[in-house]
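Entry for the shared binder. Reason: the reviewer on the internal report wants the predicted structure included alongside the sequence.
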Amino acid sequence: MSAMIIVMLTGCSGLSTKQKNAATGAAIGGVAGAVLTGGSSFGTVGGAAIGGVIGHGVDSAGKRK
């Protein structure tokens, strides 16, 4: 189990900040979509898509200041 976690964490080391934010947003959005829709695949995919878009935009919004 711990080896799998290490592999997953090191797999993201080459990503840009914007890509990491998008991946994090998609993961959080997918979980939230699944919870809010009672495990519906449509809700999970929709939440992941929306979360990914929001996560991708977080880096852009921070640089405008």
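Summary line for the report: The radius of gyration is 14 Å.
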